[in-house]
Amino acid sequence: MNSILNVEGLSKRFGGLAALSDVSFEVERGHISGIIGPNGAGKTTCFNLITGTLSATSGKVVFDGREITGLPPHQVVERGLARTFQAATTFPKATVRENILRGALLRHPLGLGSSLFGGAAAREAEAAGHASVEEVMRAVGLTEHADQIAGTLAYGHQKRLGVAIGLATRPSLLLLDEPAAGLNPEEVDRFGAILQDLKRDFNLTILIVEHHMRLIMKLCDHIVVLDHGEKIADGQPEDVRNDQKVIEAYLGAEHVE
Ligand SMILES: Nc1ncnc2c1ncn2[C@@H]1O[C@H](COP(=O)(O)OP(=O)(O)OP(=O)(O)O)[C@@H](O)[C@H]1O
Hints:
Elements: E1 3-14, E2 17-28, E3 32-36, H1 43-50, E4 58-63, E5 66-67, H2 73-78, E6 81-83, H3 96-107, H4 109-113, H5 120-139, H6 155-167, E7 173-177, H7 185-201, E8 205-209, H8 213-219, E9 222-227, E10 230-235, H9 237-241, H10 244-250
Helix pairs in contact: 3-5, 3-6
This protein binds adenosine-5'-triphosphate.
């Protein structure tokens, strides 16, 4: 397996609560992998530990062959691992284009800003940065909304903007936390198609937390299932779907479609 991410024995305790217990899995380069599980299973905690938003109680995260456990989020982004959050994290008063540009600046602050100091190389870098923003905007289908204030976008477009901001950092691995939450079935399908295009066109590996089972089953090459902080299954969609432990974990869970 050519893995881009290795999660090894990751645990997180909040006081007496084991939010994540000794979880290990690998994400294969070029794949779309999913993490699923009922509410409170530890999915977001797992994302927070991988991206440095939270520090682990124990365990290790290796990205692209280098350990990133405990690195602060901005250093994780600089290494090429970006994420979106469950809640929209856009700047509501800035335009779509400005929001995406801020994403680009997260990873390459000097590339775009150094034109202040003059020089052809700096101007070239800035032009390349802006071209990259246009490319990202086109890829998620937001070009015609480029000058619209983010806070006035339709909900589905706000979700796309969240992905675009992550994508603008030019990650090799993009983590998406419930990107399809609140979308209607037609928007979910369109979103799935966009993610497949992004994977191909941006040479991306994607790790996605999502409650929409239909989307996950269709999109993912590989799925990890968490329940009460523990990994209960790990495999291809077909295997996971028929796994007795998974079926039991989801019995009565409100989000299963
Ligand atoms: N900062 C925190 N302090 C205390 N407990 C927390 C904290 N963050 C998460 N938890 C608890 O850890 C457990 C796992 O939460 P987490 O948000 O990771 O689950 P999840 O699988 O993402 O759930 P959901 O699908 O509802 O988003 C839950 O019991 C939650 O209440």
